[in-house]
Amino acid sequence: SSLPEKKVIFKGLTANKEDMNKLMLTPQIHYPLPGGSALITFEEAKVAQRIIEMREHTVELSYGELEELDQCRMRVQAVPMELPLPSALEIRLTPSQRSILLSALPSLDITREALLDKLELFFSKKKNGGSEVESREFLEDSDQVVITFTQDGVAEPLIEKGHIQVPIGKGKYKVKISPCMSGDISNLQLQPSRCPRTVLLLGIPDVLSEDSMRDALEIHFQKASRGGGEVDALAYVPAGRTGLAVFVEDMG
């Protein structure tokens, strides 16, 4: 992507060369959960470790939903929650032969679709250095636009210009033109990483409603007398169903 130009002055700190040119990844992992399981995240990592070391837990159920018994117990297994995280990543960048990236777009009182229409109309004309436009789109979560032409050889001369004046409505606006890069992962290595505060519970029978089972698990595992502690989050998937848990970076 290309950022809008802005004049700046240096008032910061220097860094080692070895620390530069590193790709920072923000993990967001989607992990399938089987039926009869639960994920429980504690406020403290030492509580999760204690629960895992105990391995098997007997949870009391007494919610009046069971027909034959007013109270019964179930046994569940506590295991570590391990996720595959990248340990090495190589990305091969390739400039597009038919696309350009537009940035520094003006903030106007028109819809995004209307702005795309005006940009397509401008860049489809040969007198502006353009050609027939195949597609136009805003980059996701961005104010930058990708214009793709139907022919080769159109993008490069526009990129060499760097900027171009685009008439929109009654005004003209200077828009920055940059190469549009696509990236392919050429090498990816994964290694298991344990979630320090999260525990996976297995073997949960389908004997209570979803809300009641979630309450029973949280009540049990937040009691210090049973090795537990304060619960930060809990997700339960009943038997016969599947779930999808989303893991993000632990900022706590």
UniProtKB/TrEMBL annotation:
Q: What is its main location?
A: cytoplasm
Which of UniProt's keywords are assigned here? Cytoplasm, Immunity, Innate immunity, Nucleus, Secreted
UniProt entry tagged with the keyword Secreted:
yes
Q: Name one GO cellular component term.
A: nucleus
Source domain of life: Eukaryota
A GO biological process this protein is involved in? innate immune response
Compartments it resides in: Cytoplasm; Nucleus; Secreted
InterPro entries linked to this entry: Nmi/IFP35_dom, Nucleotide-bd_a/b_plait_sf
Q: Where is the NID domain?
A: 38-135, 145-232
What family classification does the UniProt entry report for this protein?
A: Belongs to the NMI family.
* Identification of the protein by name: IN35 protein
Q: What is the lineage of its organism?
A: Eukaryota, Metazoa, Chordata, Craniata, Vertebrata
Q: Which gene encodes it?
A: Ifi35_0
